[in-house]
Specification:
The structure holds 2 protein chains of 2 kinds. Chain A is an alpha/beta fold. Chain A has helices at residues 42-57, 76-85, and strands spanning 2-5, 31-36, 61-66, 88-92. Chain A has a 3-stranded parallel beta sheet with strand order 3-2-4, sandwiched between helices. In chain A, 20% of the residues are buried. Classes of the chains: A alpha/beta, B alpha+beta. Strand 1 of chain A pairs antiparallel with strand 1 (9-12) of chain B.
Chain lengths: 95, 375
């Protein structure tokens, strides 16, 4: 028998670095954030999602943020803006 | 040196069963790997200056830390000799530089390869090839150092095709794309010295590269005619973007530039200035996406070499496909400036075959990264 070492990192980190926010009980009357990654059609896709959520779940307001660089993380300022005003945020890619 | 890490592993009957076990667990790049026994991994670790649990690469998007030991395991699997490990470690540090944003090139539909250019005395010491068949198979150091990066992405960062690695097509450079610059054939200072490393030291420069374009030129020794061919390749619609460029001049082409006395800066500036297509061409080729006009940095890219600057008001999404009067006169350059063009020299002495590699990144979001190889 020979032993070979595992080249992987095994399972994912046990605890996420940032605890998850509580799930909102309802979206009725809420402000929904849309975070597009800046690629073509990303915001168009999100607008369709927002329409559905308005019709079916009573979302009231929509706050749109589009990154200008698809491969960079959302800026601190934009993240703070979304966190401040939105009950939930939907993010999407176009490509 | 005993490992202080958790040495997870599997027991197998013999090396041939080990090769199959690695395949069964998805631990390979499709080619067989060298079974990473503890003895081989320890020898690899001992050849580098890092403690086994020292983190060589941290990927922040998914919070994954690749230790020297995990790097050594993958280096053994790739077929590296222990003396290659300092170069492997330097390359991992380079792609792990936060500015490189590894998650992007590693997972994007763009499917880029991780190019590693090695400079300095370490190249000769490890018999890294910088001469004939530069990008091709045959040299162990070239093949296995480059391969280690891909195995780390697969095994440690879980960049499995179709799962996290969403490459539409990728290209064979993803197996391995590591070579030495042929400094003796360069008319200029070595690449790493031009990027701030002290002469006499060794370093790696990394770059997320899309597939290379062959630049074939046997008809001229005049620098402008020669570089016209390169600029034309750089201006190809298929890869046109605000992204960066790596040019690897074959020694024959480098010699023409040397005889003409053109500096590195002059060549880079000439290439940037001449690698452009008209906005009309871009529109005709469907290269202007509607989203561009609502992105200030892309508007700036499109119109920075335009008589009169961007139109006021800005075009609407519908204008992305509609060629307007004046669009023929707007020159859209590859990249954003001469600094976006990196020049290296390598290949065999005979043959006017050079290469242009477009960047994965469509802009300056990802810089060239150079890291010294530890002595």
């Amino acid at each position: 028998m020979i032993r070979i070492l595992d080249p992987t990192l095994g399972s994912a980190p046990a605890l996420p670095a940032t605890p998850r926010a509580a799930r909102p009980a309802s979206l009725r009357g809420a402000t929904l954030g849309l975070l597009a990654n800046g690629k073509s059609n990303g915001m168009a896709l999100l607008d369709r999602v927002a329409d559905y959520l308005r019709e079916r779940h009573g979302v009231a307001e929509v706050l749109r943020v589009a990154k200008t660089n698809a491969s960079a993380p959302v800026s601190e300022a934009d993240a703070a803006l979304l966190a401040k005003h939105c009950v939930a945020v939907v993010t999407a890619i176009g490509d | 040196m005993p490992s202080v890490t958790n040495r997870a592993g599997i027991d197998v009957a013999d090396p041939w069963a080990a090769i199959e076990a690695c395949y069964a667990r998805g631990w390979t790049d499709g080619l067989p790997v060298v079974p990473p026994t503890e003895a081989l991994v320890d020898a690899m670790l001992a050849a580098g200056p890092w403690a086994p649990d020292e983190v060589l690469l941290h990927e922040p998007v998914r919070d994954r830390a690749v230790t020297a030991e995990k790097a050594a395991i993958n280096a053994v699997m790739a077929g590296c000799r222990p003396e290659y490990f300092p170069v492997v470690g330097a390359a991992l540090r380079a792609v792990g530089d936060p500015a490189f944003m590894l998650h992007g090139p590693a997972t994007s539909t763009g499917g880029s390869a991780l190019m590693v250019i090695v400079n300095g005395p370490v190249a000769a010491r490890l018999a890294l090839n910088g001469k004939g068949n530069l990008f091709g198979p045959g040299a162990r150091a070239n093949a296995t150092i480059g391969r280690t990066l891909r195995l780390v992405l697969l095994n440690c960062l879980e960049c499995h095709p179709g799962v996290l690695d969403k490459s539409t097509q990728g290209w064979p450079g993803k197996y391995s794309l590591c070579f030495a610059e042929e400094e003796a054939a360069s008319p200029w200072e070595p690449l790493h010295v031009s990027r701030g490393v002290a002469p006499g030291r060794s370093a790696v420069t990394v770059y997320a590269a899309e597939s290379g374009h062959n630049v074939l030129s046997h008809g001229t020794s005049d620098p402008e005619r020669l570089l016209t061919c390169f600029a034309d390749a750089m201006a190809g619609l298929g890869s046109l973007s605000p992204g960066r460029s790596v040019i690897v001049f074959a020694p024959e082409h480098a010699a023409h530039l040397a005889r003409a006395g053109w500096s590195r800066a002059r060549v880079g500036a000439w290439l940037y200035a001449h690698a452009w297509r008209s906005l009309a061409d871009l529109k005709r080729g469907g290269k202007v996406e509607p989203a561009f006009f609502s992105n200030p940095s892309l508007v700036e890219w499109l119109y920075r070499d335009s008589p009169g600057g961007p139109p006021d008001p800005l075009p609407s999404a519908e204008d992305a496909e509609r060629v307007s009067e004046g669009d023929e006169a707007v020159r859209v350059h590859r990249g954003l400036g001469p600094d976006d063009v990196l020049l290296a020299v390598g290949g065999g002495e005979a043959g006017g075959h050079s290469a242009f590699f477009p960047s994965w990144s469509r802009g300056r979001s990802v810089p060239f990264v150079t890291v010294e190889v530890p002595a």
